[in-house]
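Record type: monomer structure entry
Structure origin: computed from sequence
Chain ID: A
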Amino acid sequence: MTSEKIELYTDGACSGNPGPGGWGVILRMGPHEKELFGGEAATTNNRMELTAVIEGLRALKRPVQAEIYTDSQYVMKGMNEWIKGWKARGWKTAGREPVKNVDLWQALDAECARHQLKWHWVRGHNGHIENERADALARRGVEQHRR
């Protein structure tokens, strides 16, 4: 594990739900930043929120200690409250239904296993500078796939 502190600011967006969607992430290490974004033609907001975190973690070249900032309660609760139970029940909810977006939750779980992570929730669209920037990146991803 590197001792360098990495920060990831992530966001997802969707025009219609489902509809064209985008994700954005800002990676910061000290004074260095990298912006990433992308999207899909037909997706949901929750899928884009998850994809933003996954793509941000995939961009890290080695295991690190990182702090992840998201405005998604879905992602926060999934990682901090729900995922252990889902895994224990074979990726089923407490009601024994299949977990929605299981492909992305499994991908996120695998990426998280590589790193030491601390999760932070930020209120979206509330003037948090990096969250606003991540949102703008996500909206760029939406625009790439709007037809």
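Annotation 1: The two ends are 43 Å apart (CA to CA).
Annotation 2: The first strand starts at residue 5 and ends at 14.
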